[in-house]
Structures are given as C-alpha cells and as structure tokens.
Amino acid sequence: MHLQLPAILKCTYCGCEGLRLAENAELKVYNGEDSVESGAVHCPRCGCSYPIQDGIVNFIPVRPRSIGPAQWTNHFRLVAWGYERFWRKRALTALGGRPWPPEEELATVVEMLVTPHPAGLTIHNEMAFYLDQGCSTAFYGRAIARAIIGGKLATGSASGHVVGVDNSWPMLQEARGFIQRDGLTGKISLVRANVEKLPFIDAAFAGIASGGSLNEFRHTAKALAEARRTLSPQGRGALMVQMQARGKTGAGINHLLSLSSGLHFFERDQLNRYYQDAHFKVLEQIAEGLITITRLAPE
pTM of the entire structure? Predict the structure, then answer.
C-alpha cells in the first residue's frame, strides 16, 4: 500500500475522511516509492482499524455475504490462479467475434482514460490516483501503471498511482504476484473492499477502469453510483462489459447463466440507462460481438 493512500481513504463505519497509518506499520521502498507491507490504518474519529497484510489493506474482515455465485467462485484459490493464465487474456477474442489480443484491449482502455486537460484533475498529496474497480488480478491496473510510467497517461505535474479494489483475497494475492513479476510494486496499491460501498473520499480518482466486473456486481446501480462519486469531475471512465446474446439460443444461455451464477448481461439501451442514471455521459462506445467498451465522463 502506498504511503499516501490513506489520504483518500474513508472509514466505512462512520464515514470520516482521511485515515491514519498506525505507528507500528512496516514500510519498504519499491521503485522509489514508500510502501506499507503490514500494520493498519485507523479512523481518527471512531477508532475503527483496518489491517494491512502483504501490502493489502482489508476493509472486509470476513468473506462477504452479499455477493452472487459468480463472485463466490473468485474466492477459491484455484479459480484465482487460473483466471488470467487460462481465461482473461483470451476473453475478448472468445466473446468479441474476432481476434482481439490483450495488447489492443489494454491500449484502448488506457486511451479512454486520457483527459483533455490533465492539469485540471483532482490531486491528493501531489498524486493522481486511478481505480481498477473489481480488479481481480489487476489486469487493467497494471496496464494503467505502465502507461503512467511510460508517459502515455499524463497526470499533469502530479505523480500517478493505481489502486486495485476487489472483494476476493485470493484474487488480490494473485494480483500482488503479477505486480511483483511486472516490476510494478510501489506503483499499485491493493484494497479489499465492497465496490458498492467504496472506502474512498469523493472525487478520489482521476480515472476509473473496470474489465468485465460490472457483469458480476450484484447491484449494478450501486456500483456505478460509487464509481461516479469517487471520480474526479474532470476524470474519465473506461468500462468493458459483456452484452446480452442475440437470438433465442443465446438469450436462453444467458438466462441460465444469470440464474445459476448471478451474472448480469446487458442490452445496449439498458446499459446506457444505467450510465445515465449514475450521472455519467457516454463519450464513446466500441461494440463488437458480445463485448462493449465505453468511455465515460461525469455529467
């Protein structure tokens, strides 16, 4: 966890903004960035404490209950281990109806997060934060971090940092391993939290990305409302979702999957109504096969 992250955290119990790092926290330096390996952050108002283990700050003390079956599977270590290795890099090619390599997907998402005037972004402690919402293995988050390092995602005069949020501890452990493998430790912080009650202050993020997680969130409207609340007024969002299949057979399969797994599949108009109701403006949509990637801005 980045040393500056507590500035944008808030207590999920009393709502107090700006948590404090415990004095006994263990610090390390990675890639020139201070990082917290263990300890806790606590609320200065009510005293609630949130532990930090393996660099991950945990706002969910027990396995979450209010999640669908599809999200439950993410809490199995074998599923978390195989998610990116066997599925995620092939997902868009399988669902998009054409060869769609990860490099193209990630470049599209990064481009959608670029803001016209980065100097106008909301900055916290001289840092622009980006959120990977429902991050799983931080597939998008690592691409965003690389784009910041490479100068492809401008942050004005501020430094850039990525925050990955998920409710699955095994997924976050896998994310930590991939982050270390890619040499991005210190560039990405991981947080275990409920996406429908994000532990971040208003306008915390310069950009928000989500890669297919909107299909899994139990309450779509609440998750989008939290994304909107935590996005800077000048920020951008990039959300990839799986759409409702066409035809009776495809619709039947989607219906069975929804009943058995809790996954949501969207029609175009329905998806855009969700965005509109959350006070997002659709700037651009790329739709191919069963995949839609949308660039959003706050209204």
Answer: 0.93
Q: Which of the 8 DSSP states describes residue 182?
A: T
- Position of tokens 């926290």? 25
Contact 205, 231 (CB under 8 A): yes
- Quote the CA–CA distance of 158 and 127 in Å, as a whole number: 5
pLDDT tens sequence across 75-119: 899 999 999 999 999 999 999 999 999 999 999 999 999 998 888
CA torsion, ordered 184, 189, 195, 197, to nearest 10 deg: -170
Distance, CA of 187 to CA of 190 (rounded, Å): 10
